[in-house]
Amino acid sequence: MPSHATKPAAKHSPQLDTVNTLRRLISAPSVTPDDAGTIEYLSQRLGALGFECTSLDCNGVRNLVARRQFGPGPVMAFAGHVDVVPANPRGWIAHPFAAAVIDDVIYGRGAADMKGGVAAMLSATERLCEQAQHCRGTLFWLITSDEEGEAEYGSKIMAEYLAQQGITLDACLVGEPTSHQQVGDTIKNGRRGAISGRIQIQGKAGHVAYPEQTVNAAHIAGDLVNELANLSWWKDVLGSQTSLQVTGLTVPDIVDNLVPASCEITFNVRYSHAYKSQEIYQIVAQALAPWDDHVSVQWERPCESYYTGSREAACFLSLVEQAIFRVRGQFPALSTAGGTSDGRFFASSETQVIECGVKNDSIHQVNEHVSVADLHAIEEIYTAVLTDYFGV
Ligand SMILES: [Zn+2]
C-alpha cells in the first residue's frame, strides 16, 4: 500500500482520489464509440463542483461539454476522450477492464490513453475549485467518446457547438499521453496533417500486340507514381518529414495479352503544419495536370495539421512550460510528431492548443499501464497549469 493512502486528516488525499477515479473509469469498457457510462460519471463529478454540464449526443456518440465560470477573464479548456481501443485479455497481467493495481502500477485499457489524464484533470479541477473565490476566467471540460475511431462525431461536434454559442477558447490542454522517459519531458504543440487519396486512371484497352491503338493505364500509373514520389515539399519544417507514400497500385482483371484500360493508385500524405490540406490538394492536382484527360482524384479522411507557437502576451505554451519546470525541475521538449489528434479541432489563430500527458510507451498495447507516481506527477502539472492560468 503506498504511504499516501494512510496519511491522516488531509483535506483530501489527491493521489488516492485520482487512483480511485482512474480505476472507476477503466472498469467501464468504453470501446469507441460506447462511453459505457463514463460521460454520465464525469458529469456528476463535475456537476458537484459547480459545472454546468451539457451532453451533446450525435450519431450514437456521447460528448460532454461542461463549464464553470469563475468570473470575467480568459477561457481555457481541458479536452480529451474516454473511449479506448479494444483489448483482448490474452497476455494481460490482469483483465484489461479490471483496473488492477500491482506494485503501485495501474493496469488496464485506457490507463495511459487517456483515462489517466482524465482522472488527473478531475483531481486538478477539484483542487482549483477549492480556491474558486480567488479565480477568474472560465474553465471548460470537453470530453468525447469518439476519438479512437473516425472522430466524426466527437471533438469536431463540440468545437462546432462552441462556435455556435459564440465561445472562443483562448487555451486548450489536451491530456493525451505525450511523455517519453519521464512525465512532462515532452509536450506536443502541434501535429502533422494527414490525408489519403485515390487516383482512378482511365486508359483504353486493346490487344498487347497493337499498343498503338491503346492507352495503357498501367504505364500512366508508373509515370504518376514517379511524379508523386518525387514531389518537392519545400515548405517542410525540420522534423516534420512531409512525405507522400503510395499505399496501393491496382490493375483489375489482369490478362497477359490485354493492355489494361484502368488502374487505381492509393496514397497517403503526412504533412508539416506549414501546409494546410488545401495546399496539398493543389500540389497533387498540379502534379497530375499533364494526365488530366485520364485521371480523377478522390480525397479521403483529411486530418488538418495544427501548430501552437509562442505569443507575446498571455502565452499558454510558455505557461505550460513554466508550470512543468516548476513541478518537474526541467523544461519539456516540444514535439509535433506522431499521428493525428483531436487537438486539431480546437486549434485556431485564437486558440493555443497544447497536449501534455503521461508516458505513451504502453498505449494501445497489452498491459497498458500508468504508475501511481506518474499519475500523481501529471496531476501536479495540471494543477500548476490551472492555478497559473486562473490566477490563484
Ligand atoms: Zn488518446
From TrEMBL:
Pfam families: M20_dimer, Peptidase_M20. Keywords: Amino-acid biosynthesis, Cobalt, Diaminopimelate biosynthesis, Hydrolase, Lysine biosynthesis, Metal-binding, Zinc. This is Succinyl-diaminopimelate desuccinylase. Homodimer. It is an enzyme of class 3 (hydrolase). Residues 189-288 form the Peptidase M20 dimerisation domain. The keyword Transcription regulation does not apply. One of its GO terms (biological process) is diaminopimelate biosynthetic process. Signal peptide: none annotated. Its EC number is 3.5.1.18. It comes from the Bacteria. GO terms for molecular function: acetylornithine deacetylase activity; metal ion binding; succinyl-diaminopimelate desuccinylase activity. It catalyses: N-succinyl-(2S,6S)-2,6-diaminopimelate + H2O = (2S,6S)-2,6-diaminopimelate + succinate.
